[in-house]
Design goal:
Length: 122
């Protein structure tokens, strides 16, 4: 029977052998410098290419809106823009799907209450 030898790693993935491999090690990616967004006035670090939801998750923020009727907390659920649980108010505009919206330096994310249109209530 033929013996299979393990594949040798090179570059930055060689160093990963001594520690747990991350997705970044696998693709050998080096994101640009971190920048800052805010959530309800609190600074939150973000990386280029991260969605608003990913940046909030990484900062330990799991909910950024409340439901219309009962005010229950919601955050990302499906992560692909289908369920609309991740709706957020970004830069004063409500109903952005945070899982699809790329974070940009200086974005101001605020907790969205209900439908996000309280100012339109009659």
């Amino acid at each position: 029977m033929e013996q299979v030898t393990p594949r040798r790693t090179t570059g930055s993935t060689a160093a990963a052998g001594a520690r747990r491999r991350t997705p970044r090690d696998v693709v050998d990616a080096s994101p640009g410098p971190a920048f800052e967004i805010t959530f309800d006035g609190r600074p939150v670090p973000a990386l280029p290419g991260q969605s608003v939801a990913a940046a909030l998750w990484a900062a330990g923020i799991l909910a950024w809106r409340t439901t219309r009727k009962e005010g229950r907390p919601r955050g990302a659920f499906c992560g692909i823009g289908q369920c609309h649980d991740c709706l957020a108010t970004v830069n004063g505009t409500p109903n952005h799907r945070a899982c699809l919206l790329p974070a940009r330096p200086g974005d101001a994310v605020t907790t969205q209450e209900g439908s996000g249109h309280a100012d339109l209530a009659v």
